[in-house]
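Thread amino acids onto this structure.
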């Protein structure tokens, strides 16, 4: 008798250890609704040798939540231990669904085939209050043609934490989202819905059949319950709605298209702008040309590069191409601009042939051409040694893409008539004026050397006097005068440690000025009296002035921030 009570006490201390008889499975609700979360509850009685592994469920279900509860009961002197594992799951696909056998140590649950309440349950019915629809236009585009892809979520009840899957395709597609979601109300079958619309622009990269995989939205659905004690009771369920699959028939490039670059667009324009507009320049002075290619229905990355060769007896200095994408209501437009400076080597006239770009009009489904008219260029002879500031400086300002206002403080030079006799007093007046102008330059140059602080360059402040001296020296073409003017300018910019050589100045500035300075330094090293291409150096100097607009500081050796803030 004493031994029997001793055995019972040991069992009580050990936690009423008894062996489990089996595993029961309960589904709530049974049968579950299609594309809606439900609960699987596995119950065991007694202790379990090992925690269960539910990974086998992930083949057909998405496990949203897990919960474990243990209860101990004492009935008629018998202790019972029950453990329940409750999983909240969401089916990954339609019926048939199979709940596999789950191992609980030495025990296993029985497998079970699960049927959904509304049959196959692929896409929710429209009267369910929550459904998706998708559309694409056009359905038979050309390769690389713009396609508008729209996803609409229709709902009649409250949802939260909604997430939309990314578009998926059977072949290579370039995807660009359009702005923010659109929200509005609409009526269908006599019922009012709230609609959320999300749009994308697609550019198929290969021809043939293109499948757009179904879109999926997963959200928590708020279901109000009916309780006598709590009229605001709510129940939450996770619901997944799936759209249908779209098929596109992508057409290849037509065999009759003559161009190397395929351009399927709704509109395409080619513009050619000159500065000055009369397309007249003097030998050694630059004239600016800007060619812009704009297309509606294409991005800037799809546009071909604009290649322009220099005409005979002219030099071309192209700038870096500028590209831009602009979003419209349901489309994108891209623009590509190429700007270059042209300098004539000898006077004369020539006619530039038109530029022609073939493209495919997707609205009319036919080949078209964008053309620029033929251009006649005129190069006047170079100005004499005393050109007026307007003739020498105005074309140079057209080289930069950001033309800054220039204030001319130099006294204007009088024009000397060619047919005036030598005995005319105007000749002596002109020589005196020229001598005064040269004297003014010398005074300004000496003043620039005595400046204690660097002169800031700003669009609203006149160009420093040292810069004027460089421009005058470039027009003269003498290497030593250009070197002296550049050193004088550098002394005013870095007064505390003025550079002593052109190589030191080149290390402190960026392109396009660095290379001409190094070339001038090498030329002076070989022959101090050699001439230099002053026109090319003037173009680089003008571009440097208009792009930097402030003294170049010593380059920092610190690395940029890995994650710069918005305040930076």
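Threaded sequence (568 positions):
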């Amino acid at each position: 008798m004493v031994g029997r009570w001793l055995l019972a006490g040991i069992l009580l201390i050990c936690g009423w250890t008894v062996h489990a008889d089996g595993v029961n499975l309960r589904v709530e609700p049974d049968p579950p609704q299609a594309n809606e979360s439900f609960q699987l509850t596995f119950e065991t009685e007694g202790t379990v040798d090992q925690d269960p592994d539910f990974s086998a469920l992930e083949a057909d279900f998405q496990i949203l939540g897990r919960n474990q509860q243990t209860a101990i009961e004492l009935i008629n002197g018998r202790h019972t231990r029950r453990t329940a594992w409750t999983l909240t799951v969401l089916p990954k696909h339609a019926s048939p669904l199979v709940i596999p056998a789950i191992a609980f140590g030495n025990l296993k649950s029985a497998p079970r085939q699960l049927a959904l309440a509304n049959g196959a349950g692929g896409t929710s019915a429209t009267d369910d209050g929550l459904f998706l629809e998708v559309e694409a236009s056009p359905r038979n585009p050309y390769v690389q043609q713009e396609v508008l892809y729209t996803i609409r979520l229709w709902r009649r009840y409250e949802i939260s934490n909604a997430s939309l899957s990314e578009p998926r395709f059977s072949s290579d597609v370039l995807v660009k989202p359009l702005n923010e979601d659109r929200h509005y109300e609409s009526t269908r079958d006599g019922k009012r819905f709230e609609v959320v619309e999300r749009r994308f622009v697609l550019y198929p990269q290969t021809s043939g059949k293109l499948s757009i995989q179904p879109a999926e939205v997963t959200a928590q659905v708020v279901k109000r319950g009916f309780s006598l004690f709590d009229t605001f009771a709510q129940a939450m369920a996770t619901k997944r709605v799936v759209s249908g699959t779209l098929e596109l028939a992508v057409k290849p490039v037509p065999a009759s298209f003559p161009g190397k670059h395929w351009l399927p667009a709704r509109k395409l324009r080619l513009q050619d702008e000159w500065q000055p507009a009369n397309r007249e320049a003097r030998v050694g002075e630059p004239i600016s040309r800007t060619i812009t290619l704009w297309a509606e229905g294409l991005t800037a990355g799809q546009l071909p590069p604009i290649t322009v060769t220099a005409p005979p007896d002219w030099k071309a200095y192209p700038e870096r191409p500028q590209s831009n994408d602009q979003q419209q209501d349901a489309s994108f437009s891209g623009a590509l601009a190429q700007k270059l400076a042209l300098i004539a080597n000898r006077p004369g006239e020539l006619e530039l042939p038109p530029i022609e770009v073939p493209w495919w009009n997707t609205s009319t489904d036919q080949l078209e051409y964008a053309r620029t008219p033929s251009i006649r260029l005129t190069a006047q002879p170079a100005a004499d040694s005393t050109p007026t500031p307007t003739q020498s400086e105005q074309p140079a300002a057209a080289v930069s893409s950001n033309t800054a206002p220039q204030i001319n403080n130099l006294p204007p030079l009088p024009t000397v008539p060619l047919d005036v006799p030598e005995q005319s007093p105007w000749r002596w007046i002109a020589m005196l004026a020229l001598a005064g102008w040269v004297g003014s330059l010398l005074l300004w140059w000496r003043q620039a050397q005595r400046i204690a602080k660097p002169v800031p360059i700003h669009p609203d402040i006149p160009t420093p006097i040292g810069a004027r001296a460089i421009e005058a020296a470039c027009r003269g073409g003498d290497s030593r005068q250009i070197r002296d003017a550049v050193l004088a300018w550098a002394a005013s910019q870095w007064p505390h440690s003025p550079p002593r050589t052109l190589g030191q100045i080149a290390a402190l500035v960026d392109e396009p000025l660095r290379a001409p300075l190094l070339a001038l330094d090498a030329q002076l090293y070989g022959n101090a009296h050699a001439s230099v291409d002053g026109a090319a150096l003037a173009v680089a100097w003008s571009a440097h002035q208009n792009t930097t607009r402030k003294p170049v500081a010593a380059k920092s050796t610190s690395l940029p921030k890995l994650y710069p803030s918005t305040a930076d």
